[in-house]
Amino acid sequence: MVSIDVPVFYQEWATRSGGVIDAAAGVGPDTLEDARLAYRTFFQDSFPAPDGVTFDSVDADGVAAECATPADAVPGRHLVYLHGGAYLAGDPQGYRGLVGDLARRLRARVLVPHYRLAPEAVFPAPIEDAVTAYRWLLEEGAEPHNVVLAGDSAGGAMAVSALVAARDQGLPMPAASIAISPWANLEHTGATMFTLDGVDPSVNRSGLSRAADIVLGGAPRNNPLASPVFADTRGLPPVLIQTGAHEVMLSDAVRLAAKLAEDSVPLRLDVAPGMGHVWHLLAAHLPAADKAVADAVAFAEEHLPAAVAEEIVEGLARPQPSRLSI
Length: 326
What we know:
InterPro entries: AB_hydrolase_3, AB_hydrolase_fold, GDXG_lipolytic_enzyme. By secondary structure, this protein is α/β, with parallel strands linked by helices. Helix content is 41%, strand content 15%.
């Protein structure tokens, strides 16, 4: 296992993220391709893929994606995972560590869309690709009640906003959604955007504002699909929001929770003391990260059909050996 110094990791992550934003804005020393590659390599080196999980490339109706499958996957159980990266970076290959861990713990096949990134494709391209991938999964035979949608950071916001878009298109809702450290309000008006700016070890308000200008492509920052704190979320499935108490995004994550509650969406909000952005990545290196991942998996299992029940039903459907009574 790779040994990780947590403060050093966050410092390096902030540096890699800043390099991507600079390159996307055309002001950095690196090309955007090189900055994205460095970002991916940093994640791959820090969080290698676990044993016992296979990764296959798939075409989700025109959206490039990767499917992670654990050796003991429950038949029919699926997780759609939307990676983070401020809509500017990130990809399935860089997320194999966290995705593979979730696949093993949940015993589910995990579909990770490689949604289009800005500035080449601006808002709402990521939302469109996430919905397309979800629709494709259903068309491939996945039952909505056997699917959970999850994501972190930008993907954490999409774990809500993509479902709003899917609902508006008439698609059935999945069993549940998990929003990890969601970038839920691109107006960045939450109190902790100011009080925790400089405390959050990896994200700051200035960098988020620069990224938002690039990814929105002229769309308003309060567009409901870009900032789900402004969305009509009625009819969404149960949502778990997990956020760290040291995140600049904390107040806006709480605001998202309040909006969901106002819209009568079943909701759970977990705030982890002392944690920074997407601390889940540090599972096996940080007890709080292990707990957060375990809690996310437990929430998913709570809303999915029980694996044991499924296996019993499958067993009953198979021909049974004859028995002789004496």
